[in-house]
From TrEMBL:
Gene3D superfamilies: Aspartate Aminotransferase, domain 1, Type I PLP-dependent aspartate aminotransferase-like (Major domain). GO terms for molecular function: homocysteine desulfhydrase activity; methionine gamma-lyase activity; pyridoxal phosphate binding. InterPro entries: Cys/Met-Metab_PyrdxlP-dep_enz (IPR000277), Cys_met_metab_PP (IPR054542), PyrdxlP-dep_Trfase (IPR015424), PyrdxlP-dep_Trfase_major (IPR015421), PyrdxlP-dep_Trfase_small (IPR015422). This is homocysteine desulfhydrase.
Length: 377
């Protein structure tokens, strides 16, 4: 299909029988009815759809398929959150006794899931720098390489081609969290990655009004993930799936503005005397370098004053909404990372993550610069 990204995004709605609504209706129901016993049998033989919403619902299916389409993957499934998408994706390929080789600069919640929860179920996990020699750390029981296309909060751009190459050589599976990049910038499945996960809470939804996740991949792996999602009760509500699909129609135009604004903001902060370092990728894709700008304040700047001087910019523990927001990784998302890991990665007390919104770039630059000017001692 030769359609452009925006054409695909806008026409993501699934067409269904019945009343010719322009937009898919919200199937806000916990269950579906049957005409007779044969009709029930038909569900199990695949001749009709839908039994019970935990097992499947038109709106959650629509979301899974929409993300799969934008990622260039055959199949996808929506889940209750980004973290449950990661759990369901992981459990569709690893079991007790297996070893996961994970990048050491993951989202804090993913780190906790891997380090504290999966290990209790007998899954072995090692965290290593994916910039270093990955192959040295592969064990006989390694089954999966896990990393993020753009890492959080320091925005390291993963070399996906290298990761896929190593995995193929050693017959491992790969799973990539594509939340920060979105399929607008990077399509890991197309590059040979097995499973791609999203916190749809972020750019896919885009409006900070839902919590949702999606896993996409081959028909086989997603069938496996679907089984896990059903059995673990990790399903998404139909309304939230509907809102996410609604948001996704503007993913392309939002990302275009997000990325332009971030590029301008990153450039404007480079020379600021209250900023020691600007973290912003130099190359993610032809479409741009992402919409998160992380800065480390200089010694001479007071972090509390900075956060108190942000005017209309809100302080939150999330990212990727249409409005510019700031967050404090060491106080929130990366709070529970061991101190040694925080230090090694550079997650310091001066680190601020800016999720650049779609407002006028000049207004964003002015507000952040103003806070920095006041914070400078
Ligand atoms: C937010 C986030 C998650 C977790 O998603 P939830 O929707 O909060 O469960 C996972 N990975 C990344 C990169 C995130 O930013």
């Amino acid at each position: 299909m030769g359609q452009g990204f925006d054409t695909k995004s806008v026409h993501i709605t699934m067409k269904r029988d019945g009343i010719p609504t322009k937009v898919t209706p919200i199937h806000q129901t916990s269950a579906f009815t049957f005409k007779d016993l044969e009709d029930i049998e038909n569900f199990y033989t695949g001749e009709r759809d839908y039994l019970y919403t935990r097992v499947g619902n038109p709106n959650t299916d629509e979301l899974g398929q929409a993300v799969a389409k934008l990622e260039g993957a055959p199949s996808g499934i929506a889940t209750s959150s980004g973290l449950s998408a990661i759990l369901v994706g992981l459990l569709s390929v690893v079991k007790s006794g297996d070893h996961v080789l994970a990048s050491n600069d993951l989202y804090g919640g993913t780190y906790e899931l891997l380090a504290n929860e999966l290990t209790e179920f007998g899954i072995e996990v090692s965290f290593i720098s994916f910039d270093a020699e990955i192959e040295e750390h592969i064990q006989p029981n390694t089954v999966l390489l896990y990393t993020e296309s753009i890492t959080n909060p320091l925005l390291r751009v993963e070399n996906l081609k290298k990761v896929v190459e190593i995995a193929k050589k050693h017959q491992l599976k790969t799973m990539i969290d594509n939340t920060f990049a979105t399929p607008y910038l990077v399509q890991p499945y197309v590059l040979g990655v097995d499973l791609v996960v999203h916190s749809a809470t972020k750019y896919l939804g885009g409006h900070s009004d839902i919590t949702a996740g999606v896993v996409v991949g081959s028909e086989n792996l997603i069938a496996n993930a679907r089984k896990k999602c059903v059995n673990l009760g990790a399903n998404l509500s139909p309304f939230e799936a509907w809102l996410t699909v609604r948001g996704m129609k503007t993913l392309g135009v939002r990302m275009e503005r997000h990325v332009q604004n971030a590029q301008k903001l990153a450039k404007s902060l480079e020379e600021h005397p209250a900023v020691r370092r600007v973290y912003y990728p130099t190359f993610v894709s032809e479409q741009g370098n992402g919409a998160i700008v992380t800065i480390e304040l200089a010694e001479n700047a007071d972090i509390d004053t900075f956060f108190q001087s942000l005017a209309w910019i809100k302080i939150v523990a999330t990212l990727a909404g249409v409005e510019t927001t700031v967050s404090y990784p060491i106080g929130t998302s990366h709070r529970n990372l061991p101190e040694a890991a925080q230090k090694e990665l550079g997650i310091t007390k001066g680190l601020v993550r800016i999720s650049v919104g779609i407002e006028e770039a000049s207004d964003i630059i002015e507000a952040i610069t103003h806070a920095l000017n006041i914070a400078k001692k």
